[in-house]
């Protein structure tokens, strides 16, 4: 099986990369998100790295302000850290991130349960900052219960005193909506006082608290106080809350002042928010009505239509971008698949070439081995020819000569004296065991020669041991009787030395003779 290369190694620890991502989050969440892309198939990581990955992925999206509905591994991380107590210092943060995951999924029961459990853990471990954040998060599902919101706000201040000005401001809004004006005044003023105490760096928050307190006073009919606070804010910050001023002057029926501040709003402020534009046009419509002028509702309608159509166009553009991105990702996937197919094809070509090369090597080695065996056979046959010519024992010389004549080797050597080696090699290499023992060598004729030359050796052998010995074993005994050596028998029969030696041992065992006893002499003496 061919494994395609991948950019990361599965099931191995990636702790160094995760450590680098964690350090990068503090500097740049976007850079950390890029590093996170190097982790492929997080589901295949070992449990510790998988939990750590889930925590980091959730934290990056939280810092980026992105949706966390798909960050399901943060839930795995929470369960893992609660069970193992690994990274216990990060557990409060994991609770908060898991709660945000449920928030994005709008699973409010799981959201509240996770926050409550996280608050309990944070309090037990003295993590006051995150506890305050969790209490703040709880307020998001209690927006209609003002009393509960106030209670949670006090809890936030209890665990994070640094956020007191903003929390006092929120409590003031809750009391204002509950109609408890004295409490609202107290917390608005307390928020403004705390922002002043904090001093430099908090000017914008101070101006925001004043401006909204002025709006609160306006809605409660305390127009003079509202105007005084708005002008004080304008004097200190140079900021003018045109709507607060216009609304107060409208209530005081000072219509010229209302028109003055509406015109300044239109000239000096970019209408980035739909609410601001609609508020200005609504006050203008009221002013025109009071002045017995025609109320131009079409302008507000055109503006809101333009917002609607712009929103629709933006949505279409976003959809087109998503489709384009999807198409590009699809093309990239196809390119990757094509690249992988090419790599696989190249790999298979290399493998086939290697196999072919190995086959060629084995073929060459086999040819060399066959050539060496054939050369050895040729040498043995030539020695046999020379032995026949100089042999003193007339019976052995006669028997060998008969065998060689039957094989046609004497004529082959005699007729090719100049190239006999190569020619004999080719002839011998084409003769396998069956050709030698069955086609060329006629055993019935050979047995007659053995009987004639060796006092009926074959007949005596078969009469005494014909039922004990096999045909191959009888052939071997006759060749041994005719004076053929083991090497010569190997060449004549195409059998390996080991086979002949094993067959000799079998014959000795069958005939119940000693290991060193000569087989021919034993048979001849029977």
Q: Mind explaining what this structure looks like?
A:
The structure is a single chain. This protein has 526 residues and is an all-alpha fold. The protein has 26 helices and no strands.
Which labels suit this protein?
mainly alpha; 526 residues; 26 helices; disordered N terminus
Question: Structural class, judged by helices and strands?
Answer: mainly alpha
Oligomer: single chain
Low-confidence stretches: 1-11, 407-421, 424-439
**Strands, count:** 0
Head-to-tail CA distance between termini: 66 Å
Share of residues in helices: over 70%
Biggest sheet features:
none
Q: What is the arithmetic mean of pLDDT?
A: 77
SSE order and pairing:
Layout: H1 15-27, H2 29-36, H3 47-64, H4 73-84, H5 91-104, H6 108-124, H7 128-138, H8 146-159, H9 164-178, H10 181-198, H11 203-219, H12 223-237, H13 242-251, H14 255-268, H15 274-290, H16 297-390, H17 394-407, H18 409-415, H19 420-429, H20 433-440, H21 443-453, H22 457-465, H23 471-481, H24 486-493, H25 497-510, H26 519-525
């Amino acid at each position: 099986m061919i494994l395609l290369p991948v950019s990361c190694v599965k099931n191995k620890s990636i702790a160094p990369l995760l450590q680098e991502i964690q350090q990068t989050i503090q500097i740049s969440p976007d850079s950390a998100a890029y590093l996170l892309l190097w982790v492929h198939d997080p589901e295949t990581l070992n449990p510790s790295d998988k939990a750590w990955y889930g925590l980091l992925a959730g934290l990056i999206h939280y810092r980026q302000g992105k949706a966390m509905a798909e960050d399901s591994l943060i839930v795995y991380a929470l369960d893992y850290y609660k069970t193992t107590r690994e990274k216990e210092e990060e557990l409060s943060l994991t609770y908060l991130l898991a709660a945000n995951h449920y928030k994005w999924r709008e699973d409010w029961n799981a959201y509240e349960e996770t926050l409550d459990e996280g608050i309990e853990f944070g309090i037990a471990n003295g993590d006051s900052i995150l506890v305050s954040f969790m209490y703040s998060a709880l307020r998001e599902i209690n927006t209609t219960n003002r009393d509960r919101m106030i209670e949670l706000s006090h809890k936030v201040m209890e665990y994070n005193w640094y956020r007191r000005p903003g929390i006092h401001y929120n409590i003031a809004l809750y009391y204002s909506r509950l109609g408890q004006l004295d409490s609202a005044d107290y917390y608005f003023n307390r928020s403004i006082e705390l922002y002043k105490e904090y001093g430099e760096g908090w000017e914008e928050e101070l101006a925001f608290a004043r401006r909204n307190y002025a709006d609160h006073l306006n809605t409660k009919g305390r127009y003079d106080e509202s105007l005084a606070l708005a002008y004080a804010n304008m004097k200190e910050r140079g900021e003018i809350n045109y709507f607060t001023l216009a609304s107060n002057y409208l209530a005081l029926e000072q219509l010229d002042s209302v028109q003055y501040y509406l015109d300044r709003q239109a000239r000096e402020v970019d209408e980035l928010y739909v609410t601001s534009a609609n508020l200005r046009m609504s006050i203008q419509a009221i002013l025109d009505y009071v002045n017995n002028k025609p109320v131009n509702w079409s302008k507000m309608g055109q503006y809101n239509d333009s917002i609607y159509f712009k929103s629709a166009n933006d949505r279409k553009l976003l959809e087109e971008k998503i489709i384009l991105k999807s198409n590009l990702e699809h093309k990239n996937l196809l390119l990757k698949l094509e690249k992988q197919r090419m790599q696989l094809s190249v790999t298979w070509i290399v493998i086939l070439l290697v196999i072919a090369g190995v086959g060629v090597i084995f073929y060459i080695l086999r040819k060399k081995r066959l050539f060496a065996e054939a050369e050895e056979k040729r040498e043995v046959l030539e020695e046999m020819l020379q032995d026949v010519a100089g042999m003193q024992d007339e019976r052995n010389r006669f028997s060998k000569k008969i065998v060689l004549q039957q094989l046609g080797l004497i004529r082959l050597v005699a007729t090719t004296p100049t190239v006999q080696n190569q020619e004999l090699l080719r002839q011998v290499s084409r003769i396998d065991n069956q050709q030698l023992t069955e086609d060329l060598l006629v055993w019935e004729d050979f047995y007659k020669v053995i009987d004639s030359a060796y006092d009926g050796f074959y007949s005596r052998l078969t009469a005494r041991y014909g039922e004990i010995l096999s045909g191959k074993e009888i052939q071997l005994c006759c060749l041994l009787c005719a004076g053929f050596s083991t090497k010569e028998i190997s060449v004549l029969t195409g059998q390996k030395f080991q086979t002949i030696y094993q067959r000799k041992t079998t014959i000795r065992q069958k005939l119940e003779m000693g290991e060193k006893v000569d087989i021919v002499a034993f048979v001849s003496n029977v």
